[in-house]
Specification:
The protein is α/β, with parallel strands linked by helices. It has two domains: 302 residues, Adenylosuccinate Synthetase, subunit A, domain 3 (Adenylosuccinate Synthetase, Chain A, domain 3, Alpha-Beta Complex); 97 residues, Adenylosuccinate Synthetase, subunit A, domain 2 (Orthogonal Bundle), CATH 1.10.300. It contains eleven helices and 21 strands. α3 crosses α4 and α5 runs antiparallel to α6.
Length: 433
């Protein structure tokens, strides 16, 4: 009854899609449990680059069943775009392979408009949202006024619900933000067409997943965003509107904790974030440019969803140790170690300093990082291009020391290290647990 959970340990963009793709090869069912199309996973398979925002990246493997869980908020237009993209590349995305939870909530044009209006209204203190309607959709979910995907089974009734919801939002947009609202009737017709295509995909997916686990099938829960963006445990208020931590997988899929076998934390070999918010180890120099890349390569540090350049800095061991605790990590997979090649002295923040006092753990979690300065451990760099390395023994000794120090700081084993963008550019390492 194995449930494996993949989570991001930083501010998202850690390379979770890459490892989901790797683990999906030995999984029967792959499920997303939170978020919406504010997430983006890039998977490179030969000459094809798949950029997925809603559908689990396990869909690339023809033997897997894929689920969009109850904890998600779904823009049906984006989902259909993704389905059509995959179909054009010969990927089977039929209702026998892809299932949408009947309890997942729907993003409408009103949510998109409200998200943009609210972010613009914040002026010089934006949260840095993707403006994909995620926050307003989760707000309505919490207020118990949202629209669940189950209503798409009756496309005409669904269209009326969308029309009513867009009409209500229009009052807010006009009275508070002085903005024109989307046309309710046009939205209703548009969403009725979406429902007519999507309703065969909808089911009560919690029972599907639980039955699979009871049958001994391997289920992989695919996280989106990252621990530090969790609405309860992240750098609030610069967070997302859901729970992308490992316990969120149980809520977002509707299954119990007894099934958990592994919790795999995906960690970039350095630190990045998109948007606003504190970032103690951020760099604003030639090193950050080296880490970010030019944008010419698909693996460079530009947002999959937004295209925004990511802020880059040294790996934060303090926040990584926090993420290991919050998620109950059983292991860590390091991505993009190859990007550090050519840097003279890579750093890792091993503690913080505030008013002369050293902190290895944060007194109040990551809510207020602005008053802390990082205390670094400095390492010798390596010049070797790592793309051809497949064995731990063949990594430069300096790179091995870097990895071993992360294990020491976080007290969690690292058994997988990516050294390039392709599927097979991975060093697998046997470690004791």
């Amino acid at each position: 009854m194995p449930l494996d959970i993949i989570v991001g340990t930083q501010w998202g963009d850690e390379g979770k899609g890459r490892y989901t793709d790797l683990l999906a090869a030995n999984s029967d069912l792959v499920a997303r449990f939170a978020g919406g199309d504010n997430a983006g996973h890039t998977v490179t398979v030969g000459d094809h680059i798949f950029k997925l925002h809603l559908i689990p990246s396990g869909i690339i493997h023809p033997h897997t069943t894929c689920v969009l869980g109850a904890g998600m908020v779904i823009n049906p237009a984006k989902l259909l775009d993704e389905i059509d993209q995959l179909l054009s590349l010969g990927v089977d995305v039929s209702p026998t392979r892809l299932f949408i939870s009947s309890a997942a909530h729907i993003i409408t044009p009103a949510h998109l408009a409200l998200d943009g209006a609210q972010e613009a209204h914040r002026g010089n203190e934006p949260l840095g949202t993707t403006r994909r309607g995620i926050g307003p959709a989760y707000t309505e979910k919490a207020a118990r006024t949202g629209i669940r995907s189950s209503t798409m089974r009756d496309p005409m009734n669904f269209a009326q619900l969308v029309q009513d919801q867009v009409s209500r939002a229009g009052e807010l947009l006009s009275k508070i933000y002085q903005l024109d609202a989307p046309d309710p009737k046009a939205a209703a017709l548009e969403y009725q067409a979406y429902a007519e295509r999507l309703h065969p995909y909808i089911s009560e997916t919690g029972s599907l997943i639980s039955d699979s686990l009871r049958e001994g099938k391997v289920v992989l829960a695919e996280g989106a965003q990252g621990t530090l963006l969790d609405i309860d445990h992240g750098t609030y208020p610069f967070v997302t509107s859901s729970n992308p931590v490992a316990p969120g997988a149980l809520l977002g899929l509707g299954i119990g904790a007894k099934y958990i076998r592994r919790v795999i934390g995906i960690t970039k070999a350095f630190q990045t974030r998109v948007g606003e918010g504190p970032f103690p180890t951020e760099l604003r120099d030639s090193i950050s440019e080296h880490l970010r890349g030019s944008g010419k390569n698909p693996w460079d540090e530009f947002g999959t969803t937004t295209g925004r350049p990511r802020r880059c800095g040294w790996l934060d061991g303090v926040l990584l140790r926090y993420a290991a605790r919050v998620n109950g990590l059983t292991e860590i997979a390091i991505t993009k170690l190859d990007i550090l090649s050519g840097l003279n002295f890579p750093h890792i923040a091993k503690a913080y300093i505030r008013e002369g006092q050293e902190f290895k753990d944060l007194p109040d979690g990551p809510m207020d990082l602005g008053s802390f300065d990082p205390l670094y451990e400095r390492f010798n760099g390596w010049e070797t291009n790592l793309w051809e390395v497949r064995d731990w023994e063949d990594l430069p000794s300096e790179a091995q020391s870097y990895i071993k120090y992360i294990e020491q700081v976080v007290e969690t084993p690292i058994d997988s290290i990516s050294v390039g963008p392709e599927r097979d550019q991975v060093v697998l390492r046997e470690v004791s647990r």
